[in-house]
Amino acid sequence: PRDPPALASQRAPSRDVLLVSAIITVSLSVTVVLCGLCHWCQRKLGKRYKNSLETVGTPDSGRGRSEKKAIKLPAGGKAVNTAPVPGQTPHDESDRRTEPRSSVSDLVNSLTSEMLMLSPGSEEDEAHEGCSRENLGRIQFSVGYNFQESTLTVKIMKAQELPAKDFSGTSDPFVKIYLLPDKKHKLETKVKRKNLNPHWNETFLFEGFPYEKVVQRILYLQVLDYDRFSRNDPIGEVSIPLNKVDLTQMQTFWKDLKPCSDGSGSRGELLLSLCYNPSANSIIVNIIKARNLKAMDIGGTSDPYVKVWLMYKDKRVEKKKTVTMKRNLNPIFNESFAFDIPTEKLRETTIIITVMDKDRLSRNDVIGKIYLSWKSGPGEVKHWKDMIARPRQPVAQWHQLKA
Asked: Which range among 261-265, 335-339, 350-354 shows the weakest confidence by mean pLDDT?
């Protein structure tokens, strides 16, 4: 018997239902195929970008490494800088969890990490970091003129953050006052023993000085470290033309100290490496070479050699020296010296490196010195800390020779 028409219509699927089912089936098949192709493309694309990154990172590539400075990321590989990279679309945490590892998101993240490891900078900036940015402290002083008594008054008040010049990690500063171009008549403050933030509060009078001559002078202040047994070490200087100062009343200034100008010119540079071995309790000092040394002899040359002193606190413990290089302002030494230094004594240790000019008929001349310790100048301290941070690895650095 045949079913009623209504029941037959319920059992037999309609044409519209079959058509919709077919469309859904085809759509799912196309989606699966596209997903497979998408994953294949992403893997290919990822390999292509990975290869390009490896090409940029190789030392042979002319650009990139020479114009950028690498920033070491902390342990774990996560970049500290969380600023978005230009052109990168921010991702939600849920999106990041559900995406496959080979996705474009991972590729962008890897590119972001590479970009964060590179920051703008030049080799010239690094080369001048130890000298042009060196902090020599600052000085406070006042200056004014008394028209009735024709007297210029200069008051030296105080200084702050002076660099340490002594083995003990401090200085004995005092100030010389000149009215340039006259260098013969100078005044001096008292010496403040073992003080990197000295207060002088001393007043100096230049009496009988007509105003029309005062405005033609330059007030020159030189801060020095007093040394009882040898030449005083210059710390820094400040100069201010008096024609640019309102002398009708006392004017107070804070001025950053600048490196003292050496009329005889640069003393040259020395390249040396330090290697600390904590298990052996030793430091190896390698005197590599020097360049542009100051000529100390009449013939316009020098006979340089290098002395290396190991100091513990204020005591000289051990001395080593290189051979003498005859008539050479750019000598190559390549001599290594080992010093026994227990780890607990590192903070009280100073290595003094002195470049000397050998003279057969008279006393040997000092070309320049370098003080290496925890409390030296910024360039020296950087070298010392790099040595500690990289044990058993020679760490080389150029140093400017100082008086």
From this structure: 261-265
Indicate the DSSP class of residue 148.
Answer: T
Helix axes 15-57, 104-116, angle to 10 degrees: 20
Q: How far is residue 48's CA from residue 42's CA, in Å, rounded to a whole number?
A: 10
What is the domain-level CATH number for residue 207? 2.60.40.150
Helix/strand number for the chain, H first, E second: 7, 18
Rg of the chain taking only CA atoms, in angstroms: 35
Is beta strand 218-225 parallel, antiparallel or unpaired with respect to 233-241?
antiparallel
pTM of the model: 0.41
Residue 240 lies in a domain: yes
| Alpha carbon distances (Å) from 305 to 225, 329, 335, 359, 395 | 26, 11, 11, 11, 22
pLDDT, residue 77, reads: 35
Question: Which residues neighbour 328 within 8 Å (Cβ) at sequence distance 6 or greater?
Answer: 301, 302, 303, 304
Strand ranges of the sheet holding 395-400, from the earlier edge strand across to the other edge: 332-340, 282-291, 269-277, 395-400
What average pLDDT score do residues 147-168 get? 91
The two structure tokens encoding residue 115: 């970009």
**267 CB burial (10 A radius; 0-12, 13-18, 19+):** buried
Using CB atoms within 10 A of its CB, is residue 354 exposed (0-12), middle (13-18) or buried (19+)? Answer: buried
Residue 162 lies in a domain: yes
Answer whether 292's CB lies under 8 Å from 269's CB.
yes
What is the torsional sign of CA 204, 207, 211, 215?
Answer: negative
Q: Is residue 345 part of a domain?
A: yes
Identify whether residues 278 and 363 lie together within a single domain. Answer: yes
Model confidence pLDDT, tens digit, residues 280-305: 999 999 999 999 998 887 678 899 99
Q: Are 233 and 201 in the same domain?
A: yes
Q: How far apart, in Å, are the Cα atoms of 236 and each of 57, 118, 278, 328? A: 42, 35, 36, 30
Q: Which of 256, 278, 294 is the last residue of a domain?
A: 256
- The answer to whether position 359 is within a domain reads yes
Looking at the structure of the chain, the number of domains it has is 2
Q: Can you tell me the mean pLDDT for 336-364?
A: 89
